[in-house]
Design brief:
24% of the residues lie in helices and 34% in strands. It is of the alpha+beta class and 179 residues long. The chain has a single domain, classed as tt1808, chain A.
Length: 179
């Protein structure tokens, strides 16, 4: 299947699929915790960034990793400045600044491994967050010259600083009503 065929099919589909190298992969439904966490992260970003020239999207904004050809649906995406889209449909973002994935048992290895390898090729991406849904734990990757710096935190009173967008995420806020 070509990328053009995938997009045509995906735009008519009631389910979401990722795409890479001619194959589309069905995405499974998310758990209650997953949805609550994504909503909490979205709300925290939206509240802080609405006046900073940034847009925040939750789960249905497709992102294309142009270098590798991956089309994917991150759980939360932040773009600052002018969003760039693949075409006039304005449904496939090309320049995310921050990507957040909520980890699940079925996607954890993929989100940490192969998917992050793809994301790292995005020149616009400066921060990547992996949020556990089974315990209070967030992994924060920050792009620095020469590589990615990992910071992990797992206490409710901790706060994650996201310098690329000027935001702060309190773990108490992320996990509010969840754990």
């Amino acid at each position: 299947m070509s990328a053009e065929d995938y997009l045509a099919l995906e735009r008519r589909s009631e389910t979401r699929n990722e795409y890479l190298d001619g194959t589309n992969f069905a995405m499974t439904g998310a758990s209650r915790r997953h949805n609550l966490l994504a909503g909490n992260v979205y709300t925290a970003f939206r509240t802080q960034l609405r006046s900073h020239g940034c847009e925040v999207y939750v789960s249905d904004m497709r992102v294309k990793v142009s270098v590798t050809g991956l089309y994917t649906y991150p759980d939360v995406v932040v773009v600052c400045g002018e969003p760039q889209f693949e075409d006039a449909e304005v449904d496939t973002l090309l320049n995310p600044k921050v990507v957040v994935e909520i980890l699940s048992k079925t996607t954890e290895d993929y989100d940490r491994g192969t998917k992050f390898v793809h994301y790292r090729t995005l020149p616009s991406l400066t921060e990547y967050l992996l949020v556990s849904q089974d315990q209070i734990h967030v992994e924060h990757y920050l792009r620095e010259s020469g590589g990615w710096l990992l910071t992990e935190t797992g206490r409710r009173e901790d706060v994650i600083e996201l310098p690329s967008v000027g935001a702060r995420l309190a773990l108490a806020e992320i996990y509010d009503g969840v754990l």
